[in-house]
Amino acid sequence: PPQAPANSARLAMIPLNRDECASALKKLKGCPHEEPNYVAPVPEKDRNTVRNTIVLEEKDDANSHTTSLGNVTLGRSSVTGIRSTLISRQLCTVAMEVEGKSARASITMLKESKYHAVFLNGEPLERPVGKELELVDQDILSLYGPVDFAYRIQLSS
């Protein structure tokens, strides 16, 4: 008998540098982003650190309904490649799960909003700790102010 096609879901977080992020935000919002005054400038050595692309992937060949894909904690770690002490070790968790044929991604903050400067699409992310927020394909998540330590979310299923 023919095999059912395998479903494959993938969440990739592609690092963006400051300029790439600024121009992506400008396209998105139609105007340049604003730097909030509480965000200290990031030292150049930290800014130029090569960060890793982060991928969560699930290939599913049975007819199971939900597969938990696990998640990744973003912060200062070998997973992200971020070494700057401006970024805490455990800032937030990004997770992906698959239901049927569709994948969804979410972010959950691990720090109170007054203790971090995580931005989503150029706006401060002020979610209560532990409260999930859905991420969509092409979202721009930056871990420090609108443009520093930024990632473009690529979600496909």
Number of helices: 2
Going by helix content, strand content and strand pairing, the class is mainly beta
**What is the averaged pLDDT score?**
87
Overall number of strands: 10
Rg over alpha carbons: 17 Å
Strand order of the largest sheet: 2-1-10-9-6-7
What coarse outline follows from CA principal-axis ratios? globular
List low-pLDDT spans: 64-68
* Helix content, binned percent: 10-25%
Approximate strand percentage: 35-45%
Taking the sheet with the most strands, its summary is: 6 strands, antiparallel
Secondary structure topology:
Layout: E1 7-16, H1 18-29, H2 44-47, E2 54-60, E3 66-74, E4 92-99, E5 102-109, E6 119-120, E7 123-124, E8 132-135, E9 140-144, E10 148-156
Antiparallel strand pairs: 1-2, 1-10, 3-4, 4-5, 5-8, 6-7, 6-9, 9-10
Structural overview:
With 157 residues, the protein is mostly beta strands. It has helices at residues 18-29, 44-47; strands at residues 7-16, 54-60, 66-74, 92-99, 102-109, 119-120, 123-124, 132-135, 140-144, 148-156. The radius of gyration is 17 Å and the shape is globular. The chain has 2 helices and 10 strands; from the N terminus they run βααβββββββββ. The strands form 2 sheets. A 6-stranded antiparallel β-sheet has the order 2-1-10-9-6-7. Strands 3-4-5-8 form a 4-stranded antiparallel β-sheet, with no helix packed on it. The two termini are 25 Å apart.
